[in-house]
Amino acid sequence: MWPLITSGIGLGLIDSLNPFTISAQAVLQALVKKTHHIWYYILGTFISYFIGGLLVIYGMDKVFSAFYRHVMAAYNGIIFSVEITAGIGLVFLGAFLLYKRKTASPISKTKEKKIVPPKSVAPVFLLILGASNTIGDLPTAIPYLIFIAQLVEASISMGSVLFLLLVYNVIYILPLVLLFFLYLFNRDKVDNFIGKFRKKAAKISEWAAIVVPIAAGLFLGIHGYINLFL
């Protein structure tokens, strides 16, 4: 048990350094009506990651894999044709956004920068956002998947699995909890940092809106072409 606990703590610390989840909370922290409402975001993150781990361990991945194989066998040609079409469409979308950005007048760019974020966000939205962000991260959470593989290989009782997953997920949300207390006692400094972060994030998101569709389109197009014709 102790080797698994040690492994869970180590992998959990690595997994907890998730820049997207942490930066999202940093922005949301300044938008909540009451400071403690950010716990809804943290709770949503914790619950979805914990349940996601249980689903992977107890075979839900096998159910989805079987369904995927059945659909692919029945509609192979249609799916990859749609994939190629979607890829081409995404590449054209990215190219159009790039053209639109380069041809935008200085006045329109100034107007875009003056967009004001909402003054507050509801607790329910925070809960859903925390859960959805974490579910989206689950397929790429390599440390978590490694730990889950160790639990499956160990063939331990369900009670031990629940305990170890609980330990891992508590470690996972530690940076979010620390960020909450940092904001609680250093609100002015954190608000100043978030203000600067928003400006940088706005510039990054402008280019991400262009690069991501093009990259995704190229991947889908090439993947679909290889599977359909090669």
UniProtKB/TrEMBL annotation:
The keyword Transmembrane applies. The chain crosses the membrane at residues 38-58, 78-99, 120-149, 161-186, 207-226. InterPro entries: Gap/Sap (IPR021315). The keyword Transmembrane helix applies. Pfam families: SfLAP (PF11139). Keywords: Membrane, Transmembrane, Transmembrane helix. This is GAP family protein. It comes from Planococcus shenhongbingii.
